Amino acid sequence: MFRKVLVANRGEIAVRVLRACEERGINTVAVYSDADRTALHVRYAGEAYHIGPSPSRESYLCIDKIIDVARRAGADAIHPGYGFLSERAEFAAACEDAGITFIGPSPAAIEAMGDKITARETVGRRGVPLVPGSPRGLHDEELEKLAPHIGFPLMIKASAGGGGKGMRAVFGPEEFAGALGAARREAMGAFGNDEVYLEKLIANARHIEVQILADGHGNIIHLGERECSIQRRHQKLIEEAPSVAIDSAMRAEMGRVAVAAAESVNYVNAGTIEFLFDSKEQKYYFLEMNTRLQVEHAVTEMITGVDIVKEQIAIAAG
Predict the structure, then answer these.
(1) 3-state DSSP helix/strand/coil % of the chain, to nearest 5
(2) Rounded distance, CA 183 to CA 194, Å?
(3) Is 195 helix (H, G, I), strand (E, B) or coil?
(4) Contact criterion met (CB below 8 Å) for 205 and 276
(5) Which of 74, 206, 255, 310 is 20 to 30 A from 275, comparing alpha carbons?
(6) Which has the closest alpha carbon to 87: 313, 288, 237?
(7) How many CB atoms lie under 10 A from the CB of residue 118?
(8) How far apart are CA 70 and CA 49, in angstroms?
């Protein structure tokens, strides 16, 4: 087991990870910006190091600063929490280069699943059902020409997207050009990448996500599903588990497919496979994979009794 873990985050999730470490008998290190000098996670940790001014781009998003603190503190592992650097392949790679264990998946897995088009292509090769959509690399004219073949309504989605950014619903060809331009601009502003793709809009679909855990020895399990269909502006408001929309047979099938999706990138650690579920047709489609601990992990913990953060630490420790 690790001797000392640095938590590269702040607030509630930092305290959550620090507590799991403490319960496993692991020494802890916190980092903080000017704004967080007196924050709870700073006081809770065994050691705390200042990493810069209040803006996150000058503190919590500075890979070099966090790696430097980990070295100075003698931390042998880093837990990224969620948000900030948790899904940055270059951060996981920097930890590897520094000889520090990243408590999460490999840089390759983060990279493969972080790009929505690559993720679709990767899991599709394992037979995971996909929403009908467009391939990579199409220009505006090609996307506009393909749109009627996919069928309206459809979604324009940012390849590097998340959190509802760079997404536009299009209900007819007359809306397409304006929505495409808006989606590209928003994607560039949010992610520095304006690549988009098209996906059939599944009307009134339920949003169901399957929690998985994968160790470094080829074993992958799922811990059932959470339903997060109640959203505002593509942001989840309510998580419910188990979902009332699926039966035990569908639950087992979606769990099996979620495991196959994780296997497609040799995934290790905790992750979540998100699906759209058409309850009318009783069909489901891969949406994306979150290569990190999610905010809503506690819902699954409450119904399974599994401490996902402790399992993350144990998996990373081998």
Answers:
(1) 40, 25, 35
(2) 8
(3) coil
(4) yes
(5) 310
(6) 288
(7) 15
(8) 10
Measure the CA–CA gap between 253 and 315, rounded to whole angstroms.
25
Active site residues per annotation: 292
Strand partners, 211: 272
Tell me the percentage of the chain whose pLDDT exceeds 70. 100
Q: Give the model confidence (pLDDT) of 215-259 as tens digits.
A: 999 999 999 999 999 998 878 899 999 999 999 999 999 999 999
Which tokens belong to 44?
Answer: 């809770």
**Closest Cα partner for 34 from 11, 66, 58?**
58
The size of the chain, in residues, is 318
CA–CA distance, 173 with 196 (Å, rounded to integer): 17
The owner of tokens 């996150």 is: 56
Give me the DSSP letters along 22-52: HHTT-EEEEEEEGGGTT-HHHHHSSEEEEEE
Q: Using CA atoms, how far apart are residues 27 and 18, in angstroms rounded to an integer?
A: 9
For 138-292, where are the alpha helices, taking DSSP H only? 140-150, 173-191, 248-263
d(C-alpha 260, C-alpha 262), whole Å: 5
Token pair, residue 73, equals 């503190």
Does 163 or 299 have the greater pLDDT score? 299
Question: Can you give the pTM of this predicted structure?
Answer: 0.90
Dist CA 170 CA 134 (whole Å): 15
SS3 164: coil
238: number of Cβ within 10 Å: 11
pLDDT in tens, 118-136: 999 999 999 999 999 999 8
Q: Is the peptide bond before 107 cis (omega within 30 degrees of 0)?
A: no
In degrees, rounded to 5, the angle at the alpha carbon of residue 239 between the alpha carbons of residues 284 and 301 is 100
